[in-house]
Please model this.
Amino acid sequence: MQLDTPNLSYIQMLSDGDEEFETSMIAILKRELPVEKEAFVQSIQNKNYKNSAELVHKIKHKISILGLEKSYEFAVSFEEALKNDDSSGYDTFMRILQNMEDFLTKI
Amino acid sequence: MKCIIVDDEAAARAITRQLCKKIEELVIEEEFDNAIDAIKYLNSETVDLIFLDIHMPTFSGFDFIQTLKNPPQIILTTSDKNFALDAFEYDCVVDYLVKPITPERFAKAVERMKDRTAPAKTEEPVLTSSDDTASIGNDLYVNIDRRLVKINIPDICVIEAKGDYIKIKAEDKNYIVHSTLKKIEEKLPNSLFLKVHRSYIINTTKIVDIEDNSVLIKQDVIPVSRANKKELMQRLNLL
Model:
């Protein structure tokens, strides 16, 4: 799957020029995403796919916040697959998370 | 209007808070990252509106609603579209917002909430859903989970708009159907049914009593808008 490019359009639309909100949102994403990614990797390693699906559910909101429509669609189907113990989308999902982390590091 | 936000995700709480800032009447009193703390708060405080995430670990939004004896109005927020039907089983649920929430959709949900508490308004609703109802004679067939379920029209007491769904309250059972008040109104006989409010159609034969701007049907108090009250009064056999 070709990854889409993260953007801040949604955050900027909500902020309406409120820089404090933008800074706070980005700080939350920078703080929470690595923690959730770590928990997800751990959960997959433990083959706890139900918990992994819960974590994907949580992360997918952040995917949508960064305007990643294609990645979001993938996350929706990956969450469902994990509920059926199918973790075959793991590598693609990890690429999506890396894509988000790279973007958040640069801004 | 006093509100609280209940969501385990910090980003989601920040977004809801920001959306509330755009609507003057809304005052965020507190935020909670879990349902238990919100329940403790509500044991001693009252609020007008709760923005509630459905998908929370340990104690879900639905679990939370069930613990409330007199729930205030609730706007559900979720990343999952699949809970919509369950959501509207609760009378306190005003609307169902799918994340990422846009300011326009958020404002519409708050308007719906205000309409419920201010029954005198008369604007026409925005209707966008597909029709999942059909009627034959005295029967109305509604599409529920890909099955056409028959409802005896005279048994219908009240129909309430619930976002993109309608709730049909009949004598013995309630039904949630993906349709609009406008569409079901076209399937019902005018002699029995009257739209008394932008969110309600009633069966006028089921009225128990009328008081000011509301009617009592079974146990439900239904608001009557000022514009519709005249027609309602004309239909009644007044002494």
Residues 103-117 of chain B form the longest helix (15 residues). Confidence is low (pLDDT under 50) at residues 119-131 of chain B. Residues 133-235 of chain B form a domain with the OB fold (Dihydrolipoamide Acetyltransferase, E2P) fold (CATH 2.40.50.1020). The interface with chain A takes residues 8-12, 14-15, 18-19, 21-22, 55, 57, 79-80, 99-100, 102-103 of chain B (CB under 8 Å).
